[in-house]
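Example record

One chain of 480 residues, shown exactly as stored in the release files.
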Amino acid sequence: MIRELLSFYSWRMPTVLAYMLQNTEYHPGTYLAWFWRTTRFDKVLYRRELVPTKAARLLQLALRVGMLLQIAAGVGLVVWWRHDAASGGLAFGLALLLAYPIVWAHLVVVPLFLGRWLIVQPRQRQAIETSGKIFAAFKGEKIAVTGSYGKTSMKELLYTVLSEGKKVAATPGNKNVSISHATFARQLDGDEDILIIEYGEGEPGDVARFAGITKPTRAVITGVAPVHLDRYKTLERAAVDIFSVSNAAKPEHIYVNGESPDALPYVQPGQQLYSQKNALGWKVSGVKVGLDGTQFVMQKGQEKMALHSGLLGRHQVGPVAFAAALASELGLTHKQIQAGISKTVPYEHRMQPYQVVPGAWVIDDTYNGNIEGIRAGTRLLQELSAKRKIYVTPGLVDQGPESAAIHKEMGQLIAVAEPDVVVLMQHTVTADIQRGLEAAEYAGKVIIETDPVSFYTNLNLFVATGDLVLMQNDWPDNYH
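Predicted structure tokens for this chain:
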């Protein structure tokens, strides 16, 4: 209790508040929700530091000056009270002294509200409106990529392969909302053959709005899973939003991951499925999976392609096969396709392998997370061989009211993969994962880690030659 109280009055509080704002992308509601559920402010900056951008430094300075002025005012009133006991100066002065962190934690969002309403939103609306005209005037192919998971990986996959024979531009990183699309549009040369545009989804109506602005000629739906249910509330609402992109292009130019069970009920007549077995009329065979990547053969009539990708896991076969098949449809030669596929490597923190010590491999799959990702990861762990297999996770975020059931299922999937050791980062969902492990009669060792930073930092001390570690998902700092 004393530590919690002292952390509230730490000299680092301005930096902590600036970091919390930065980490929530200056979203007032998300920031305030995080602030009010935090009990140890000295732990907020435990994993990362404030990125010293101009905006962050300005906020930090404003908070520090404001807090010092309030402290000075409080001290002044307390001193004044000694000369005028009946004035109420003591009570008001003490209140100012005690309340300065909470006062400035809330005052700092006022300019955010005003700035967003008076400056940011009008500018963004203008930029988005202009981008709509740029996208409408573009004469080449515009491929939208949307879904609950795998969007950035699919976008990078398509970009790498199609760039072997076409001039291609793609939205950078995971910049996948309208203002990001607007920035992307302004940077186009205008003579591109293909644009690849990733769509994020955060609440109902997002995908339809993005499609209305970017006007895609083709769309890839990478799958549907329970993600962002804190805003969508139900999986059905998320699926309807994702599939609203179907209204923007011809049915035969809508491509859906046929291995996503929650997507299949929403597939419309004429839309094409892709999977580990086939993609756009090409049949897939001879799949081999290892730590060096994935290889297989594709055949369509007399045409045949042998492909090797640096992407890991059997779940990558469908997306890679689709990228190759679409590239063929758009006019690339087999040689160009094979060269493009050979250049594909795991995107950062998405099934990314590396050696932590000689002979000990880590597969880093910590970017976000959903139950389909867990399914793919545990299958990969089960398929690969190692002297000792270790599975590490903190659980999933944004699972809404189904969180307990989803995490129990997660525990069962982990158990089926039969790792020798399961390391769970202590969080609110840990008990639910444990229930799943117990229900599936997992017989291995379970470690509950209360200090994730220490564990990840000293992972090299935890593993030995011959070990294989799969790390799935990460919890942002603004989640418990």
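Notes: The longest strand covers residues 282-290.
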